[in-house]
């Protein structure tokens, strides 16, 4: 067994990440959009940003080392509710949509995530597993924006929800999915979306086919939601009066990941970009959005990879060890000598290194070329130029 104590200095290397900025189509990896009549908010790089409704240069609303997301505009568009773990546990905050100091709304020591505003703008709807036992499960709560204790809604389970325009009913997604990226999941976590009357407590189910139906949003006379009942996650609409169900978008590649609206139009996330959608005609437009700013996570820095080592193997001579760690390929001496980073490619994932039988060359797979894996070979000293085989 080789002890890492003989070469502890090896396990620090420099990494450099570059913000993903696509000049032709704007910045990608924009998530969790929300829309008012004049602005769109979204999460990017664990901060909240705002742009004009038609796209353009983004303005940063939060700038912390914390993870912040789940933005939701108040009905008048003057406030944003969002989640932040700046206190250690995700809690609900509100901030003026023009920017300013956020105000913390929830204080219970359990994760809390905003879902919507009440139609009158006086309360924020949020989900939390607070006061649930023995196994934690989410329920829906409201908290007054002027401060005060939270109130539990009568929905027994509630991971997500959205009010009807008159505030008398609420549509509820009861259960979270332990793996939201499990495409075409058809297990027991797929429960029908419910329409709950807050006065009579009667419920109406939105028809389902065992599909994943998420992100319910009540606009005018219809409830819009995301569903993968045609395999791809698209926008659907349900009329609770006529029980009519219709498909709004018919995308064939790539799931829609998020859905919000402002009473007249919808905004959704698809393939890392944000799109505006007319819910009546089904016409949609991808927005050109540019996010610029200081990105501390993109700066060159040191990373200890001692606990990230995989695919270690001893050389045929028994003098060096070949290692994979955080997408880089290294060789380190068993006793005497210097460690060598053979790849030095922070922008690529280098995997599965292998010695040649004589120990003079090393082969590995890398996605550096066209983001698809190819086979590379270089000498074990890392001096000669690497050669791509296939």
Explain the overall architecture.
The chain is elongated. It has 390 residues and is mainly β. Strand 10 and strand 11 (91-96) form a beta hairpin. Residues 1-24 have low confidence and may be disordered. It has a 4-stranded antiparallel beta sheet, with no helix packed on it. The chain has a 4-stranded antiparallel beta sheet with strand order 9-10-11-12, with no helix packed on it. A 4-stranded antiparallel beta sheet has the order 13-14-15-16, with no helix packed on it. Helices cover 0% and strands 45% of the residues.
Give the key terms:
mainly beta; single chain; disordered N terminus; 45% strand; 390 residues; 4-stranded antiparallel beta sheet
